[in-house]
Known about the structure:
Blueprint: H1 8-20, E1 24-26, E2 32-34, E3 37-38, E4 42-45, H2 46-67, H3 70-76, H4 78-83, H5 85-98, E5 110-122, E6 126-133, H6 140-156, H7 158-163, E7 171-172, H8 177-195, E8 203-207, H9 215-227, E9 231-235, H10 237-240, E10 244-246, E11 252-254, E12 258-259, E13 262-265, H11 286-296, E14 301-303, H12 306-311, H13 314-322, H14 335-342, E15 348-350, H15 353-361, E16 368-371, E17 380-382, H16 385-392, E18 402-405, E19 416-420, E20 423-427, E21 430-441, E22 444-445, E23 452-461, E24 475-477, E25 479-482
Parallel strand pairs: 4-25, 5-14, 8-9, 8-13, 13-14
Antiparallel strand pairs: 1-2, 3-19, 5-6, 5-21, 7-25, 10-11, 11-12, 15-18, 16-17, 16-18, 19-20, 21-22, 21-23, 23-24
Helix pairs in contact: 2-14, 5-11, 6-8, 8-9
Amino acid sequence: MTIPPLSQQIIEDACEWAIMHGVAFRQSDNTARHCPFSIAPMTMEREVYEHLRRVTPLITKLISNVSEDHDFLQSSLSDMAQADPFFGRLMALHQQAHGCADERLNPARQPLLLMRADFMDDRQHGAKVIEFNGIAAGMAPFGQRATEFHSFMQNQWPETYKNWLEDQSATPAENQGLTQLAYGIATTARQVRADFNEQGKPVFLMVVQKNEDNVYDQHLLEVELQKQGVRTVRRTFEQLSSQFSTGDNQRLLLQDIGAVDVVYLRAGYQYSDYWAPELNESICCHTLSQTRLFIEQHHVAVNATFSQQLATSKTMQMLLTMMPASEYARWGLTLEEAELVKSVLADMKPITSESIEWFNTQANKQEWVLKNQGEGGGHCVFGDDISEQLSQLKPEEYDAWALMQRLYPHERDVPTIAVRDTQQTLVTDLVSEVGLFTAYYQGKPVTELDGYAGYLIRSKPASENEGGIHSGKGILDSLVLID
Length: 483
């Protein structure tokens, strides 16, 4: 039987629900456009999901402890830092912050790790990590909203929902991405305020990009924090460069606001976030990156610290993948925990003249993806294009890149309808990426779910390489489980 396309009534209902619930991007003329979404959720075996639930907090514990091992970060990432100018700058800032032999002079910042670990459930190898996001690890609000949206569809348009569901016995996976992330941040903010024996509302500062279009996801988090008794403030690095000062006991003070308890960076993962043309600097981006350093020199909870950004880099992912599980003991993991983490790490190889030779002569090129250190979409090279890219690299650039096992997730058994810009498209080869959120403060879980904080599902046609909601062909999705 062929299922007719959705009626205009259903499409309008769905798009208006999305806009009304903040699931949108801001346009340049200040109007809003709804996020692209799927009309029904993806299916995953409960066992696979439970495995990811169990392993992701362990990954966060590992990354959290690695990120506080400053000598290890400096020694293990030095080659990559020379090959990648942006990470070179981060390493220099990290060294500036932590390079003092006198422990008492090291930065006073308190690490709050808000992380999203992204997985794909490979047909052959099972669920594997694509990457760790430790800075600007956003979209937990959109993740929770997508789950709520599919619940709305199930209640309002049950026939439509059923028509596009893969398995009628599937049940929704609970998703408190927004509320639990806010809970972790609010708990941390109150803790910092208590460190100073201060009363009143804790203050949360979000560092944002200028003219950001992904503002609604950010505002949803702020509204939830306000509900949980936290005052929220938004600033760009440029604004902050002249608005900070230091109070007693390394308290971070913000002009016209007062003491700040948590700083959350939704900017800072690319050079352009630190570039202020009117400053006319001899060293690009010096002033604004020093603003970030200034934050870390204060007793304030920070996500992401320089350390966390380095510890979630592709090169660190590769080093941890290549390491025997027993070595994780130095960062507080038992062998059993380490083996669990290793079970979800996909093969990675460094770029050397030997690995290039191997790739060009022996490898199955479709089984690998070439990645640089970039965050977000557009930083991956696939298949035959890899040899071309490798041939253009200079040897001094090798350490900025890595080969990673390419993942081929299950395609959805049932076609789905993707809705983008109020238009529907039938997608017959949809695959999904699963991002699990965690929140840890000073190495300890700070959510009501032992550090876990919900999930984000992004789906895309298998034929498309770029799956970002924001920058690629991805659509927002949610998760149902089958036994």
